[in-house]
Amino acid sequence: MNCGTNRLHIRPIRMDDKASIFSYRSDPQTNKYLSSIPKSVDDIAKFITNSSPIINIPGTWFQLAIIERTTNQLIGDIGIHFLNSDPENKQVEIGYTLHKDFHGKGYATEALWAVIDYLFNSLDKHRITASIDPENLKSITLIERLGFRKEAHFVEGLFFHGKWVDDLVYAMLAKEWKTKKRQVC
Ligand SMILES: CC(C)(COP(=O)(O)OP(=O)(O)OC[C@H]1O[C@@H](n2cnc3c(N)ncnc32)[C@H](O)[C@@H]1OP(=O)(O)O)[C@@H](O)C(=O)NCCC(=O)NCCS
After folding, report:
1. Which pLDDT tens digit goes with each residue over 166-184?
2. b vs e for 128-149, b when ≥16 Cβ sit within 10 Å of the residue's Cβ?
3. Looking at ligand 1, which atom is closest to the CA of residue 33?
4. 98 inside domain
5. How far is the CA of 106 from the centre of ligand 1 (A)?
6. Ligand 1 centroid, distance to 71 Cα (angstroms)
7. What spacing in Å lies between the alpha carbon of 107 and ligand 1's midpoint?
8. Distance, CA 109 to ligand 1 centroid (Å)?
9. In a domain, 185, yes or no
10. Domain limits at 10?
11. Which stretches in the chain have pLDDT values below 50?
12. pTM (predicted TM-score)
């Protein structure tokens, strides 16, 4: 996938992105709701190695880098989990992280809009989900701004950083996305 918006270029992650990704993913405060915080650039190298090199393979995560066009700087990443629980490979889960210096500019909304559009219109997916900590208000605002519906609130459904925590599941169907007008890719 190579895609973009006026302000952003979105492309598959590469091994030479590891230092840039470490620079924002290693911030424990900004990323306190993520499942793991890398301790070294090597942790990011393993993360990139463990990502699928090919998009749309059931049971794998495919990772995308978000690049700000004006500076050519890598400012965040988006992960796409192709679910193997679905024999038709029509359902995916998404995850996203933005460098804190680039929060509050609409970049995550814009990048996700492009990726969601690609998943529904080019890869013909049926349903996209996102799993969010109920305390992660920025992420909830973002996903609701994109038009996702809250489908579930699992109480203490995840064991996370040494304790049981709640988990919200948000979802969007292809037929719901088609009612939206904006096209970015
Ligand atoms: C979740 C996360 C990506 C949200 O980032 P964000 O900056 O709030 O989201 P966006 O980039 O879409 O920016 C939206 C904000 O920019 C503002 N904005 C400014 N200029 C804008 C523009 N041109 N277009 C749209 N929005 C704009 C919006 O009003 C909005 O502000 P608000 O939330 O105060 O209303 C970010 O908090 C993050 O990376 N967190 C750490 C990782 C994480 O928790 N990931 C989610 C795991 S589930």
Report:
1. 999 999 999 999 887 664 5
2. bbbbbbbeeeebbebbeebebe
3. 44
4. yes
5. 5
6. 19
7. 7
8. 7
9. no
10. 3-177
11. 183, 185
12. 0.94
Which of left, alpha, beta for 162 (phi over 0: left; psi -120 to 50: alpha)?
left
How do beta strands 91-98 and 127-132 pair? parallel
Strand, helix or coil for residue 66? strand
CA-nearest residue for atom 20, ligand 1, is 105
Structure confidence at residue 185 (pLDDT) = 44
Considering the domain boundaries, does residue 183 fall inside one? Answer: no
- 97 CB less than 6 Å from ligand 1? yes
CATH code (residue 16): 3.40.630.30
62-95: pLDDT as tens digits: 999 999 999 999 999 999 999 988 888 999 999 9
Tokens of 69: 């066009």
Per the structure, the count of domains in the chain is: 1
| Residue 57 in domain | yes
Task: Name which residue sits closest to atom 40 of ligand 1, judged by CA.
Answer: 97
**Which residues contact residue 30 at a Cβ distance below 8 angstroms, ignoring those fewer than 6 apart?**
24, 100
pLDDT in the model for residue 2: 75
